[in-house]
Specification:
- This protein has 382 residues and is α/β, with parallel strands linked by helices.
- The protein folds into two domains: 143 residues, Aspartate Aminotransferase, domain 1, CATH 3.90.1150.10; 225 residues, Aspartate Aminotransferase, domain 2.
- Helices cover 39% and strands 14% of the residues.
- The chain has a seven-stranded mixed β-sheet, sandwiched between helices. The chain has a two-stranded antiparallel sheet with strand order 1-2. A two-stranded parallel sheet has the order 3-12.
- Helix 7 links the parallel strand 7 and strand 8.
- The longest helix is centred in the C-terminal third of the chain and has 24 residues.
- The N terminus is likely disordered.
Length: 382
């Protein structure tokens, strides 16, 4: 197995995957996560031993400051986190320069999405979403009997705001994932602002939820958070999570920002203590660790772009992405590729209809992407 001393070594990555010059001779039996074979007889269903590129997690995990904060918080494990929740809400309010009444916590952003469906949609007021996008709101809608209108992304894989606006008439809730999962595309700040304005005029009772789960990864200059819009308007909510760049997917901590009246509407459906002591402590430490946020953004960009280059070298150009994943069009049903990867110990994203020929690849560590790249080359015949 080839290991890198410098996890961001472009030369080592390119040399290992044979993307330029003479490729080094390597066995496909490279180990995954340091202990088991990538191509072996072991069952790929053993997720704990696979290279996991399927859930848009941060493979680097929480930062040192967050880990230290969690250790210190262990002594509070016997206490309900009422006071600590208030402390995190206040810290987030300071971060975003809003009032604490304009912030609400959730068990990941998943709880926020569920609260929004319950608060604003109903059997007579449908949900407008994209196809494909994150399916959480649609799943919640189905469980509550809420009709769903899904609008297919456009030819550039971007959210089709023109059609979504038409579908928003008399809707209870419109869901915009920005950057969008799984396509990795973004909406500019001006595009979102104009959309909110038009929907607000045409259907003033319709709420708009803007999911910014991948906000911290975006570097494109035209992108802007919609938090100022959400605080100013009663029909807009912005959701955030610590599951992505901050590496806390297993801790389950998210939040929403919006007008105080909108937050009150969400609060009617919130679990009283849905965020635990360790998650609260880690989140407070993470938002103050600005240096780590910048480092994670850089690491993600470099690793993502080199992995996209691998697919391009195999004849499958991957779509541009502003997040910690990307999609690649395999020009065939992607499930066969996904299943072959699983058998080789590499987990990639689930299908996202109607883009059935696209595979979503989450960004792992540079070392993981190098080893997964051997599998991708073998399966695609590179």
């Amino acid at each position: 197995m080839i290991r890198f001393r410098n996890p961001l070594s472009r030369r080592a990555f390119v040399r290992a995957l044979g993307l330029g010059g003479a490729a080094a001779t390597m066995s496909p039996f490279a180990t995954a996560r340091g202990s088991e074979a990538l191509v072996s007889s072991q069952p790929a269903s053993a997720r704990t031993t696979a290279i996991r590129l399927d859930s848009n997690e941060n493979p680097n995990g929480p930062g040192v400051k967050a880990l230290d904060a969690m250790r210190a918080a262990l002594t509070l494990a016997n206490r309900y986190p009422y006071v600590e929740q208030d402390g995190l809400s206040a810290a987030l309010a300071r971060l975003h320069r809003v009032r604490t009444s304009e912030v609400i916590l959730g068990c990941g952003s998943a709880e926020v999405l569920r609260m929004a469906i319950q608060a604003f949609a109903s059997r007579t007021r449908h949900l407008v979403t994209a196809a494909p996008t994150f399916e959480g709101p649609s799943r919640h809608a189905a469980s509550f009997g809420v009709p769903v209108q899904a609008v297919r992304v456009d030819a550039a894989l971007a959210l089709n705001l023109t059609v979504m606006e038409l579908s928003a008439d008399r809707a209870g809730l419109v869901y915009l994932c920005n950057p969008n999962n799984p396509t990795g595309t973004i909406l500019s700040g001006s595009a979102v602002s104009a959309f909110v304005e038009r929907v607000g005029q045409a259907s003033p009772q319709t709420a708009i939820l803007i999911d910014e789960a991948y906000h911290d990864y975006v570097e494109e200059p035209g992108y802007q958070t919609s938090i100022p819009i959400a605080v100013a308007r009663r029909n807009v909510i912005v959701s955030r999570t610590f599951s992505k760049l901050h590496g806390m997917a297993g801790l389950r901590c998210g939040y929403a920002v919006g007008h105080a009246e909108t937050i009150q509407a969400l609060a009617r459906f919130k679990l009283e203590t849905s965020v635990n002591q360790l998650a609260i402590a880690a989140a407070r430490a993470a938002i103050e660790d600005r240096g780590r946020i910048e480092r994670e953004r850089t690491i993600n960009r470099e690793t993502r772009e080199l992995a996209r280059g691998l697919f391009a070298s195999l004849g499958y150009p991957a779509a541009p992405s502003a997040a910690n994943f990307f999609v690649v069009d395999l020009h065939r049903d992607s499930r066969a590729f996904r299943d072959a990867c699983r058998r080789a110990g590499v987990f990639i994203g689930r299908p996202f209809p109607p883009l059935n020929s696209f595979a979503r690849i989450s960004v792992g560590t540079m070392d993981e992407m190098q080893r997964a790249g051997l599998v991708f080359k073998q399966i695609l015949g590179g």
